[in-house]
Amino acid sequence: MSKQTYKVGFFFRRQFTMAAAEAPADIKNLFNRYSDDSGVMSVQNLHRFLIEIQKEKNASLENAEAIINNHGGDSNQKGLQLDGFFKSLFSDVNPPLDPKLGIHHDMTAPLSHYYIYTGHNSYLTGNQLSSDCSDVPIIQALQRSVRVIELDIWPNSDKDDIEVLHGRTLTAPVALIKCLRSIKEHAFSASEYPVVITLEDHLTPDLQEKVAEMITQTFGDMLFSPSESLKELPSPESLRKRVMISTKPPKEYLQSKEVKEKDDTKKEAEQDDADEEEDEDESDEEDPKSEKKAASEYKRLIAIHAGKGKGGLSDWLRVDLNKVRRLSLSEPELEKAVDTHAKEIIRFTQQNLLRIYPKGIRVDSSNYDPFVGWMHGAQMVAFNMQGYGRSLWLMHGMFRANGGCGYVKKPDLLLKAGPNNEVFDPTANLPVKTTLKVTLYMGDGWDKDFDQTHFDTYSPPDFYTKLGIAGVPADEVKKRTKTIDDNWIPSWDEQFEFPLTVPELALLRIKVLDYNLSDKDEFAGQTCLPVAELRQGIRAVPLYDRKGEKYSSVKLLMRFEFI
């Protein structure tokens, strides 16, 4: 037990007692149930606790012995006392997601059967209008297991080389070759599963030919380039340590120029995205022979063909059993499409790839609700990884699943039609499959990761926690704890129940805040966890900062049960 002193003006000081973290009543009761009369939990009883309370069916006596060896304290006791038991539960080796689970989804299905960790304008260091372009954010994204990297490629000022930049903005360019080399070096540093490079192409045919040469020389045998259009997408497993190119084939690229010229005035009025990739491609007229040569070399590299084609939404979503492709829709286009073509979108994504990207007015590199795309089967929900906030935290949470490899298998309900050939309806009122019961006992670590006056100049923080489910509309809910005043080690000891109709798509959102009477409540940590992979039992839940970096010490003690 220690004391903290806070200054109040020039002459007054307030003193607060800081107690050490103490086991909650529930933990004490469980310890008493599984310990003997001398107050020691034996190896055998700890083993029982791991199986019965922690639901670790495969736990062994050796696992229990290892916990006692790490937290037992007195070697003569040959067991755990209450303090050691509490510390073992509240330690970093007891996380909410099982690190031993690793990559456990079936990775042999077509790419269209997976959510894929996807970046938008992956080269930008900040906002969409004036930030620098660099290979650094590309490297950082790959190190987080992002598997889809987007590059906007333009001619340089001399029209003899290729740069990556956000067109028609003040962003400073970076050389394409530098980006390609960094992708090659870091592509598989965090995951061995395939990297897709989506090219938003604003090049003349001669520069397309140069891009083809760059890509071929940079990636060599790493490059997956099928000899003909794919009838079915290959699996992530078959493409380990391979790189794929996805863009619009040159023919469609040249045709889109005509559409672009007709629509330019309208688009400027709408202030739509500067890289409205399916509509705003540009091309200068070139010699037909040059175009043909470039088209041949460039097209050969494209593993996943992109394009909307002619017509409207119904035509874009038409499934061709002899050819797979990638369709890109902007955030507003998707929102409109799900109102009128929700079933067609889901059917399309059972075989083809659908990429969603942020609307153009998000110049601050903010993001949108990814669940609109996910619950309709969209695999590539493209995000500005350099931003932060609730939406990006959801993205981080989704891709903590499946060992953090960047590929998460979509639920069967999005992949298979029902007995009457009906498809999943995310808005339907479905029966509850399971209920997640969450007990939030306490939190600790803020006094180690923050300065004494970070949250309040005159007193310790007043923490409360918001909890909620993100998922299909029927499952979404928000709840919160009471506020614990003037305490660095808040003890809430509250229970919450979350009925879930589609637990396969549910994410548990957690955010801790410091209550301020006269100002905005101060952020104190967050995390987002895939419900389907939560370990039952009592777990130490680490918290992350706004940008998704894990704090050194801050964590919550929680219990998860499915009832």
From TrEMBL:
<keyword id="KW-0442">Lipid degradation</keyword>
<dbReference type="Pfam" id="PF00387">
    <property type="entry name" value="PI-PLC-Y"/>
</dbReference>
<dbReference type="Pfam" id="PF00388">
    <property type="entry name" value="PI-PLC-X"/>
</dbReference>
<feature type="domain" description="PI-PLC Y-box">
    <location>
        <begin position="328"/>
        <end position="414"/>
    </location>
</feature>
<feature type="domain" description="C2">
    <location>
        <begin position="409"/>
        <end position="545"/>
    </location>
</feature>
<keyword id="KW-0443">Lipid metabolism</keyword>
<dbReference type="InterPro" id="IPR035892">
    <property type="entry name" value="C2_domain_sf"/>
</dbReference>
<dbReference type="InterPro" id="IPR001192">
    <property type="entry name" value="PI-PLC_fam"/>
</dbReference>
<dbReference type="GO" id="GO:0006950">
    <property type="term" value="P:response to stress"/>
</dbReference>
<dbReference type="GO" id="GO:0005886">
    <property type="term" value="C:plasma membrane"/>
</dbReference>
<dbReference type="InterPro" id="IPR000909">
    <property type="entry name" value="PLipase_C_PInositol-sp_X_dom"/>
</dbReference>
<dbReference type="Pfam" id="PF09279">
    <property type="entry name" value="EF-hand_like"/>
</dbReference>
<dbReference type="GO" id="GO:0004435">
    <property type="term" value="F:phosphatidylinositol-4,5-bisphosphate phospholipase C activity"/>
</dbReference>
<dbReference type="InterPro" id="IPR000008">
    <property type="entry name" value="C2_dom"/>
</dbReference>
<feature type="compositionally biased region" description="Low complexity">
    <location>
        <begin position="226"/>
        <end position="237"/>
    </location>
</feature>
<dbReference type="Pfam" id="PF00168">
    <property type="entry name" value="C2"/>
</dbReference>
<keyword id="KW-0807">Transducer</keyword>
<keyword id="KW-0378">Hydrolase</keyword>
<dbReference type="GO" id="GO:0007165">
    <property type="term" value="P:signal transduction"/>
</dbReference>
<feature type="compositionally biased region" description="Acidic residues">
    <location>
        <begin position="270"/>
        <end position="288"/>
    </location>
</feature>
<dbReference type="InterPro" id="IPR017946">
    <property type="entry name" value="PLC-like_Pdiesterase_TIM-brl"/>
</dbReference>
<dbReference type="InterPro" id="IPR011992">
    <property type="entry name" value="EF-hand-dom_pair"/>
</dbReference>
<keyword id="KW-1003">Cell membrane</keyword>
<dbReference type="GO" id="GO:0016042">
    <property type="term" value="P:lipid catabolic process"/>
</dbReference>
<feature type="compositionally biased region" description="Basic and acidic residues">
    <location>
        <begin position="249"/>
        <end position="269"/>
    </location>
</feature>
<feature type="region of interest" description="Disordered">
    <location>
        <begin position="226"/>
        <end position="294"/>
    </location>
</feature>
<dbReference type="InterPro" id="IPR015359">
    <property type="entry name" value="PLC_EF-hand-like"/>
</dbReference>
<dbReference type="InterPro" id="IPR001711">
    <property type="entry name" value="PLipase_C_Pinositol-sp_Y"/>
</dbReference>
<protein>
    <recommendedName>
        <fullName>Phosphoinositide phospholipase C</fullName>
        <ecNumber>3.1.4.11</ecNumber>
    </recommendedName>
</protein>
<keyword id="KW-0472">Membrane</keyword>
